[in-house]
Amino acid sequence: KDSYQITLLPGDGIGPEIMTATKGVLAALTKRCNFELHMTEALIGGAAIDAKNDPFPEESLQQCLSSDSVLLSCIGGYKWDANPRELRPESGLLKMRKQLGLFANLRPAKVLDQLIDASTLKREVVEGVDVMVVRELTGDVYFGTPKGIDVVDGKELYILFGSSSLTLIHHIHTFITDSIFLGKRVGYNNMIYGEDEIARIARVAGDVASKRGGKLCSVDKANVLDVSQLWRDVVIEVMTKEFPNVELSHMYVDNAAMQLIRWPKQFDTIVTGNIFGDILSDEASMLVGSLGMLPSASIGVSGPGVFEPCHGSAPDIAGKDLANPLALILSAAMMLRYDLDRAEEADILEKSVEAVLDKGLRTADIKQENDGCKLVGCIEMGEAVAAIVSTIDC
Ligand code: NAD
Ligand code: IPM
Ligand code: MN
């Protein structure tokens, strides 16, 4: 196959700027490598709320479903922060992940030599770090019910939760009749994982680890949370049976947060739940030097994957040509590798990113004082990568 349908989701904030830069890079790549990407844009996030009053409209879903792959920038912004939950940009992102079945999110944090000094950590700590965080993406406290903010007394609970599960009602009832809650507002989200959800992410992680350094660290909070105890039990079951050659270890999330900074080279592949993975991957970005460098791949059982940077819409720098487009460009490389089976072209993109850093170009987030590098904006960085893509030897 040499022609692909790609849906682009520019989203909000810096999203459109980094998407424009990445489109230029992909245009240079297709021209050089003799294949076609038919790219059409669709709405998500705040942009979709403004246009369609829905953060992920049905037509965007259909367009994604009829594509070979999806490239997403980022969503969110102050403008929508006071909206009701279902009319927030973040709800559109979660809806997209759920509707496309994207249960596995691969977040590689690979330290590039050129950027060692961009990290706030010491050179010897970050040099050579290559960690892959496998984050579960469609479960956990993000999607658990019941959830909400309410003022309730014990009697109203049965009506509110209307659950068919007597155990659940019992648990919540017990919780809510504690006198500190009565007549006051309560906020609640249910952290819940089913064993099949855990097993399938463990399989992805086992597979990823077996193709990397052969080491998997599962991160949980099994010392406190029942949901985490189940997580640990199921990960052990799957790994023992299906990946006996992968070295499995377990770590509590608080310790993992510390160990990632203390000595990140102890990690090869990490597997963890949705919320722990969200937090740990942002932390891991500082090993690399900037959140603006971290790509990700969100993949499901079948259908197109979504390739998205780990960062958000960076409203503090949006519209100023300050954003680093490299996380999105590297996400496009992951798209070529994982969804389009174009490893060679993915290599070209990744090598071009390294080459642009070798040339000494830096956006503000990765620029150091007196590093002798040239400070560039998002547009110039994108153009420079595109120029290299057209000429680089592989
Ligand atoms: P953020 O990731 O947008 O920004 C955190 C910090 O990193 C900011 O200082 C920002 O300027 C910087 N940064 C992020 N990406 C950058 C880039 N490419 N180049 C240079 N600097 C970059 O996180 P936040 O400020 O907590 O959230 C802002 C909005 O983004 C919120 O609405 C949030 O919900 C949303 N968000 C969306 C996603 C997503 O679309 N996947 C991810 C995280 C946050
Ligand atoms: C991310 C973001 C999202 C998440 C938010 C915006 C819903 O932080 O993609 O990492 O928490 O998954
Ligand atoms: Mn996040």
UniProtKB/TrEMBL annotation:
<comment type="similarity">
    <text>Belongs to the isocitrate and isopropylmalate dehydrogenases family.</text>
</comment>
<comment type="subunit">
    <text>Monomer.</text>
</comment>
<feature type="domain" description="Isopropylmalate dehydrogenase-like">
    <location>
        <begin position="5"/>
        <end position="385"/>
    </location>
</feature>
<protein>
    <recommendedName>
        <fullName>Arginyl-tRNA synthetase</fullName>
    </recommendedName>
</protein>
<comment type="similarity">
    <text>Belongs to the class-I aminoacyl-tRNA synthetase family.</text>
</comment>
<comment type="subunit">
    <text>Homodimer.</text>
</comment>
